[in-house]
Give the backbone structure.
Amino acid sequence: MTSETPRTEGKRLDGKTAIVTGASAGIGRATALALAGEGAAVVLNARRRERLIEVAAEIAALGGKALVAPGDAGKAEEIDALLAQTLSWADGGNGYHIVVVNAGRGLAGGLLASDEGQWEALYRTNVLGAAHLMRQAGRYLGQQGGGDIVALGSVVGRNISPVSAVYGATKFAVAGLVEGLRRELCGHGVRVSLVMPGIVTSEFQQMAGYDTENFGTFAAQFGTLLEPGDIAEGIRWLLTLPPHVHVNEIMIRPTGQSYP
């Protein structure tokens, strides 16, 4: 059974609403489908409205429910609008229960070679936008007395890579934010988790400026790489554990990936 297959028995997220940023493709799309398959109503956020509409149609075809809520996850005012829209949409005033902080961008090259003109935008989305969403969602879920925040980090946010040092530094920052927020909220019944993917085959590499020369040859040595659904399965698993069980960090690599 893949993460995109609806689960017909024992849907463990029935009655819950989940927000997924960066839901138009890759890990975000796969996660939205996985959570919908567990019975969650899913709020889909990304900048590309037309792609979100396609994902919403896939969820509807599986018998699920989704809200298309386009916006830029690097802008605080658009994050606030997303949360307000979610509260207006959620069934019966039931609010939201899960936030997957997935939206992000990559950047090829280390500190010496990467395009400095992209650094600010990289930090705006990967760190400042993620921090604002976690802050606002954390306040809300803390007041509600429970819920989940899952943030996407990276293996290079734990084991820095010289060929993606600036991007990796943003994911080091995310890891710090997640652990700090976990300590603030664990006494309120809120689980804050960090998911650190290894090399995942998606459009992420192309958007980040990776190509065969600076990425493909390096990645080829590790054999079969991960697919977005592999990460979504890990997220689905940790979100469906009993409320008193908190897997606060998971790192998911291709079996053959030795480093980072």
Q: What stands out?
A: The beta strands are 17-21, 41-45, 66-68, 98-101, 147-152, 190-197, 249-252. Residues 119-144 form the longest helix (26 residues). Residues 108 and 214 are 8 Å apart (CA to CA).
